[in-house]
Amino acid sequence: MKTTLGWLKTHLETSATLDAIVGKLVMLGIEVESVIDRAKPLAPFVVARVVEAKRHPDADKLQLCLVDTGQAKVEVVCGAPNARAGMLGVFAPPGAVIPRSGQALKASKIRGVTSNGMLCSGYELMLSDDHTGIIELPEGPQPGESFVKAAGLDDPVLDIKITPNRADCLSVRGLARDLAAGGLGRLEALDAAPVAGTFACPIAVHLAGPDDKACPLFVGRVVRGLKNGPSPVWLQERLTSIGLRPISALVDITNFFTFDLGRPLHVFDADKLEGDLAVRGARPGEHLAALNGKAYELEPGMTVIADARGVLSLGGVIGGESSGCTESTTNVFIEAALFDPVRTAATGRKLAVQSDARYRFERGLDPEFVRPGLEIATRLILELCGGTASEIRVSGAAPEWGRRIRFRPDRVRSLGGVAVAATEQHRILQSLGCAVQETGDHFNVEPPSWRADIEGEACLVEEVLRVHGYDAIPAESLPHAGAVPVPALTPAQRRAGMVRRTLAARGLVEAVSFSFLALKDAILFGGGDPNLKLMNPISADLDVMRPSILPNLLAAVRRNADRGLPDVALFELGPRYRDDTPEGQDLMASGIRAGAVRRKSWDEPPRPASAFDAKADALAALAAAGVSAETVQLEAAAPAWYHPGRSGTLRQGPKVLATFGEIHPAALRSMAVEGPVAGFEVLLDAVPEPRAKGSARPLLRLSPFQPVSRDFAFVVDEAVPAETLLRAARGVDRKLVSEIRLFDLYQGKGLPEGKKSLAISVTLQPVEATLTDAEIEGFAAKLVAAVEKATGGSLRR
Amino acid sequence: MESLDHIRDELLRLVKGATDLEGLEQVRVGALGRKGRLTALLKELGALAPDARKARGAALNQLKDAVEVALAEAHARLSDRALDARLAQERVDVTLPIEAAPAGRIHPVSQTTDEIVAIFGAMGFVVAEGPHIEDDVHNFTALNIPPEHPARQEQDTFYLAATAVDGSRKVLRTHTSPVQIRTMLRQPPPIRIIVPGRTFRSDHDATHSPMFHQVEGLIIDRTTHMGHLKGCLIDFCRAYFGMADLPVRFRPSYFPFTEPSAEVDIGCSREGGGLKIGAGADWLEILGCGMVHPKVLVNCNIDPDEYQGFAFGMGIERIAMLKYGIPDLRTFYESDLRWLRHYGFLPLDVPTLAGGLAG
After folding, report:
1. CA of A164, closest CA in chain B: separation in Å?
2. How confident is the model at residue B1 (pLDDT cuts 50, 70, 90)?
3. Mean pLDDT of A674-686
4. Do B227 and A474 touch (CB under 8 A)?
5. CA-to-CA separations, B238 to B234, B235, B266, B284, in angstroms, rounded
6. Would the CB atoms of A507 and B293 count as touching at under 8 Å?
7. What is the helix (H) or strand (E) element at residue A156, kind and residue range?
8. Which of A104, A115, A105 is nearest to A79 (CA)?
9. How far apart (Å, rounded) are the C-alpha atoms in residues A356 and A362?
């Protein structure tokens, strides 16, 4: 919504400055997005008269004009075909910055003749798109006068954002009304006195909408014998100031009413109508050639206005070409109606028509301002175009809108947080147009017809606060239940934070990526459920909810590699989606390592990312979530997007806690990522809640006796997993053994084909007495027997 | 018989002449070892007459002491020299570069969320969460946004393709507000929650991303009013930006789920082209808020004549951009390592009120 300060002042008598008005609007809840000062860039331009115009000696298409700038007569070379002696134009002296080019004008020679300035087109001044000729000003101003002043451009434009509830402020008068209530002036009276008709309205309107709500009220009248020429300068200036193009008096008047009073009207050329009008639902197959030059296929449910021949316009949305007014129009039928907001919005949306009328109808118009709007419009049409008006023909009636709200003034204090005297509240509500009746401890308030948004007591509290000023509400810090607050995080949320910072501390960089991705990538990672596809994705490669974070991280690997960063370690803590229910969303901690985890350096060889890096990350994440590695079982199998021989699953019983491994080369190829890449996925939601057992740790019992370490190497079949050996070793004497570490893996010379050697270091920690040699030997024998039995291997000697 | 003075001179000369610990040990053995010269002389004492033995013994002991002192001194000196020699040999080029442990970073969205939780946590809010795939009721209807409401058209909603039996479609939540509804339906007042999380709008340009993060706040009790709303958010803004005098302005606005509603601006200055948060000539909008609409309470089976409270919502990326000077919203989700390392945070830099949040 735009207006100018001068336009606003036609409705508001005020001595307030522009800044005060803007400030008040903002604090009333009417956001002023910008104030456009059109005068500033046009300050150097002056009104000038072309005294003489003659052909340029050396150019057919140029003229030499002698121009009276008010200060001097200067010679100007001009290429405009409409430049001629006697006309008033706009002169740019040397040094003036031309708005369109941003360049300062210099006196220069054109085909041998010096041009001491320029006569400007609307295009050059960025006032219009017209560059076919120079601006011709109407007679009145004197040469040398400021062009800004002569053209009425010294009036600043306010660009205003209106919240969807304030349909009443989609008009200059509505803004003025709110400002007046806010104490910034007095609302000028509006003369809506009826224009007496001199003959009966020959056109009847039959309301037969799709339902009773579609168009409850239609008011119309005919004006005969008018003349539709250009509208007067003041009206043209109003429209151009807010970015509308003047067309003809009749069209300009309807546009003006839409913005000035928030009352869209439609004017039909009465001579193009056939018989009576009907407001009805569109029929299948009907279409409309609209005033915007486009044709629309109509559907049942849309409200149309039709005559005997067919559809004339879409009610509340847009008019039709066939019955539109032209320069030759002499008889018109003026429509002022109420159209259903919901239906208007649906029609406009379906046909993708944005119009100023639709914008207002879909937000709801004042049901009591239909007939007054028509009367005021009639007066202006008669004034500007002449003619005689018929009587008004009213079809239907305004829907019931009145309501009474029980309002306790004390709610302004108890809900709004500021004490405002009841008398002041009464005054504020009245100034907004409410009827207020005080009874005992409450008011009965009847909001005005233009404020359909005021529905209940809370709305009235807002109205009082808004006018009284939000600034006047004293700020109070929240009262505390106690000096120390309760924990803000649940144990699971705290755990997630620990995992995040643990992974980052391990050198992984945290990413945040979209929850959706391309279907083909989703399918690679176990997704692609049609129930998780988006109906309206912003692009085809973001069309399904992600089944895993890994594909997003792999895409990031590719992008970083393309930028010359091949060594990537990324993780993300975020959702994956199994289905579309609230339970189908899991919190995951997933990460990838690509390229080298250790780059080549002078002291160590380089090391590419491997499944073991991912395993270490996954175990570290689980440890941070409170799961110790000893309580987790490892299975050498993982989902299909991992390398089948280099991946694993970490579980507790049947519950999967994490998967890890090298990403399957086929998945990498499909995503155009250079491998190898190792990745992990930890299901944080699967991690069991910590048991509530208090904060005390178990008592630490330190043994005074010396620990003993012994190393054992076993030769086993290549296929025997290390875990089998370790599990057997751990089971020998859980009380005595404090640590078992596998420290060597050897295959090759000295060992039979198909065999490998695994060496472990076992630490024994006696608690009752120092171990004797016999005890150590006894343990060793048991361990060797247990491992040999479990692995089918033998102690390496 | 050799004069003792002569022996002393010679032994001390030998001690002095030793050039390494090995040589010195030979001198010691030659003098004091089992077959050493002094040992031999001491052995001879037993053959002397008692008087002569006493005088001779005293002289010999004196001599022995002197030699032992000299040996100890020489030992210390030569040990030092040997250590110096070893250290000189063990020298490495410490200017060789080390391979720094790879540095991880925390994403600005996570860090900012932790800061927000720290501040509101101190005011007694607890963190609540909810699903990203929502139904129409939680995302719109229960929040007083009926199907035909203009606000529904203005929020560019992502819909899932699948339709339910009743023809409805699931949506990606357009705000974190559905968690208000879920919380109020789950637990009775008093309620004091914040809800940080992912939100989705089908919009993608320089200042919009199809996914971004919001934090929602909700208080429901019997007494919280708009003065508390102002106090709470002013306290938040000043703590978050680390400016005790940051100007904060509340102006009337409209949201379907609050009444009265407000938008909150903080003071800023745009002088010289750059944006600076703090007292200045301009205002910058950072969040929307209001008193929970009675209809929303009713939709959650809470009696609006008994309970009231406020709600607010703000963009996490937005306030992160303002605080940390990050120019482009879209870069948050690109996982560009250069960006993440530049704008990210050290893993152990956990935001706390005790440590201050000024960044």
Report:
1. 7
2. low
3. 95
4. yes
5. 6, 5, 10, 14
6. no
7. none
8. A115
9. 10
Residues of B in contact with A563 (CB under 8 A): 336, 338
pLDDT tens figures, B336-349: 999 999 999 999 99
Please report which confidence band the pLDDT of residue B332 belongs to, taking 50, 70 and 90 as the band edges: very high
Strand partners, A280: A208, A304
Q: State the pLDDT confidence band at B155, using cuts at 50, 70 and 90.
A: low
pLDDT of res. A81: 86
> Which one-letter amino acid corresponds to residue A516?
F
The CB density around residue A194, as the number of other CB atoms within 10 Å, is: 13
Q: Nearest chain A Cα to B154, which residue? A: A164
pLDDT tier, A209 (very low <50, low <70, confident <90, very high otherwise): low
Determine the residue of chain A that is closest to B262 in CA distance: A29
Contact check, Cβ <8 Å, B261/A462: yes
User: What is the separation of C-alpha A73 from the centre of its chain, rounded to a whole number of angstroms?
Assistant: 56
Angle among Cα A5, A7, A13 to the nearest 5 degrees reads 80
Residue A252 has pLDDT above 80, yes or no: yes
Q: Which residues of B touch A584 (CB under 8 A)?
A: 133
Report how far residue A91's alpha carbon sits from residue A50's, in angstroms, rounded to the nearest whole number. 10
Which of B207, B216, B194, B213 shows the shortest CA–CA distance to B110? B213
A12 pLDDT above the threshold of 70: yes
- Distance, CA of B128 to CA of A62 (rounded, Å): 75
Of B142, B222, B148, the C-alpha closest to B177 is B142
| pLDDT given for residue A381 in this prediction | 96
| Rounded Cα gap, residues A392 and A334, in angstroms | 10
Structure tokens at B45: 């004492």
CA A26 to chain B, closest CA, distance in angstroms equals 7
Query: Which of A355, A365, A511 is CA-nearest to residue A452?
Result: A365
Split at pLDDT 50, 70, 90, the class of A233 is confident
| pLDDT score of B152 more than 80 | no
* A 410-429 residues with CB < 8 A to B: 413-418
Q: What residue type is A649 in one-letter code?
A: T
Q: Which residue has the tokens 């209809």?
A: B295
Which residues on neighbouring strands pair with residue A88, listed in sequence order? A49
A554 touches chain B (CB under 8 A): no
Q: What is the 3-state secondary structure (H, E, C) of A760-786?
A: EEEEECCCCCCCCHHHHHHHHHHHHHH
Backbone angles phi, psi at B7, to 5 degrees: -60, -45
- CA-closest candidate to residue B292, choices B206, B238, B228, B199: B228
Distance from CA of B86 to the nearest CA of A (A): 23
Q: What is the DSSP string of A708-754?
A: EEEEEEEEEETTS-HHHHHHHHHTS-TTTEEEEEEEEEE-STTS-TT
Report the alpha-carbon distance of residue B133 to residue B114 in Å, rounded: 24
B280-309 pLDDT, tens digit each: 889 999 999 999 999 999 999 999 999 999
pTM of the model: 0.88
Closest Cα to residue A479, out of B232, B330, B65?
B232
Closest among A649, A726, A647 to A682, alpha carbons compared: A649
Residue A542 CB-half CA count within 13 A? 18
Q: What is the mean pLDDT of residues A270-281?
A: 93
Confidence at residue B357, expressed as pLDDT on a 0 to 100 scale: 84
Reading phi first (left if > 0) and then psi (alpha if -120 to 50, else beta), residue A285 is in: left
A-B CB pairs within 8 A amount to: 265
What digits encode the pLDDT tens for the residues A688-704? 887 767 788 889 989 99
Q: What are phi and psi of A703, to 5 degrees?
A: -85, 135
Q: Which of A462, A479, A514 sits opposite B333 (nearest CB)?
A: A514
